Amino acid sequence: MADMTANTKVFDHYNGDDVYEYSLTNKHGVTLSTLSFGANWYELLVPTAAGKQNLLLNFPHVADYAEKNPYLCMSIGRTAGRIGKGQFTINGADYQVDQNEGKNDLHGGFHGFNSYNWDGRIEDNHIIFTKNVTSDMDGFPGNMAVTITYTLTEQDEVLIDYSANADADTLFNPTNHAYWNLNPGDVTVGNHDLYINSTDRLTLADDKIPTGELTPVKGTPFDFSQTASLGKAIANLQDIPEKGIDDVYVLNDHKADEPVATLSDPDSGISVDIFSERNAIVCFTANGFKADEPYIGKTGQPHVGVALESQQAPNAVFDPNYGNITVGPNEIKHVYTKYHFSY
């Protein structure tokens, strides 16, 4: 780790608290920066001929995140995605949690991981965030000790490990809501190419809750099972309410060293490979982003970024065939996502 440099500084102040920025830079000049508020992934800087380029959407102030786009590049939990009517059952016991999007629970409710100022520190090439999330704080059963660890390697990889244990049975299906734009200039992601190792997406009701069925992507604008143009797909979806992609892709079986998704910019040659052991990835093309969102170096507009969020399929809340997203006493659960950058 001799070539790895680290930096900690106060980034901003919010609700009377200092918000810290934690940064690591490897020997190639790749910089990973995070914020304590929301355990946020603030920057991923890669060296280019024109200087360092940030691949993530970001804001200049914490208030912009809290007030304009509360999930932007945030850690999401206890559960990513939607829980229908905010209701679920574990071991025969029924629970009701926040209904913060219509009748549904979205991204952990009103007090999800994105809303907390986390305790942070740097150890070697790791940025470590910790938080004790109590049932009184977010309404989920059980008090949960959560650790989110960002690791930067000398192979230009970022690994995000999420771990938790709880004193009662509860749900744990976290992710990071990173929004990517690989362009050096102020343009949308319409020129990007995308690959997702998936041949089916979840069939969703009008309120975005899975019906339990699958919809094949072959022959539709949603098909990225072979690398395809993101801009062309968006253009072909202008007749649907979303006017873009906001879908859960069920991942095909894959080996650990095979990317589940690859986002690339043919113009700059920059690409991001995403690796995950989980069974789904959400693709969202920022369809409703607005002009009043003050991104650094990018104009707020639809399709200014694309989120690719690895998680367990939200069907797992009601269908054990989609995996076990519970964690309970005497158990520590780890899930991870790895990103590899080429530039």
UniProtKB/TrEMBL annotation:
InterPro entries: Ald1_epimerase_CS, Aldose_1-epimerase, Aldose_1/G6P_1-epimerase, Gal_mutarotase_sf_dom, Galactose_mutarotase-like, GH-type_carb-bd. This is Maltose epimerase. PROSITE patterns: ALDOSE_1_EPIMERASE. Belongs to the aldose epimerase family. Catalyzes the interconversion of alpha and beta anomers of maltose. Its EC number is 5.1.3.21. Pathway: Carbohydrate metabolism; hexose metabolism. The keyword Lyase does not apply. Keywords: Carbohydrate metabolism, Isomerase. It catalyses: alpha-maltose = beta-maltose; alpha-D-glucose = beta-D-glucose. It comes from the Bacteria. Pfam families: Aldose_epim.
